[in-house]
Design goal:
Keywords: Membrane, Transmembrane, Transmembrane helix. The chain crosses the membrane at residues 20-40, 46-67. The protein contains five helices and eight strands; from the N terminus they run E-H-H-E-E-E-E-E-E-H-E-H-H. The protein is α+β, with helices and mostly antiparallel strands. The strands form two sheets. Strands 1-2-3-4 form a four-stranded antiparallel β-sheet, with helices on one face. A four-stranded mixed β-sheet has the order 7-6-5-8, covered by helices on one side.
Length: 185
């Protein structure tokens, strides 16, 4: 009996600078708040509660960081394996993918656009989405080619509002509603 071992292709990881950006954002948000809380609590002797709250925030950040470090795509001959935070895995088979949409979407109200990949099945249900803020353009291209489905390119970048009017089911619920888009930014 001959054992044929499935050859695993490239493992794709998110952009490396995301950790530094998240650490900077958390520090900007948390340090002034805890600085003021320590300053207010020193006279009353409640600083141990502030220290406990700070330890909880730091622990939550570390858990979130460890969860995001486990995010990657692994390419296989049959499709791709999507590893999301907390060890959850989705298998997207090339046979299930009907179309791959490659679209550049503007981020917020700026002029910068990011590539997005949307893999949909024959019923136009979303199977996979890759955000350009997290994944490099080359990673998105590699996954698109691995899925071996017809690729549709948008000729020009779109705003989220324009894309919502065309394919709203491919976006998360908060992206389809203008109020929640502003809150999420």
């Amino acid at each position: 009996m001959v054992m044929v071992r499935e050859q695993v292709g490239v493992t794709l990881r998110p952009r490396g600078h995301l950790f530094a950006r998240s650490l900077t954002a958390v520090a900007i948000a948390v340090l002034p708040v805890f600085g003021v809380l320590y300053w207010l609590s020193l006279g009353s002797g409640l600083w141990p509660l502030v220290a406990l709250a700070q330890l909880i925030v730091i622990a939550l950040y570390i858990v979130a960081l460890l969860a995001t470090r486990s995010v990657f795509f692994r390419q296989h001959p049959w499709g791709v394996e999507d590893h999301v935070p907390f060890g959850l895995t989705r298998h997207i088979r090339s046979d299930d993918v009907d179309t791959v949409l490659l679209i550049d979407l503007y981020s917020g109200s700026g002029m910068e656009s990011w590539p997005h990949l949307f893999a949909v099945d024959a019923e136009d249900r979303l199977l996979l989405r890759m955000h350009g803020q997290i994944w490099s353009r080359s990673s998105i291209q590699q996954v698109a080619s691995r899925l071996q489905a017809p690729v549709v390119h948008a000729p020009t970048p779109m705003t989220l509002t324009e894309f919502t009017s065309i394919e709203p089911q491919l976006l998360a619920w908060w992206e389809r509603r203008p109020f929640w888009r502003r809150v999420a930014r």
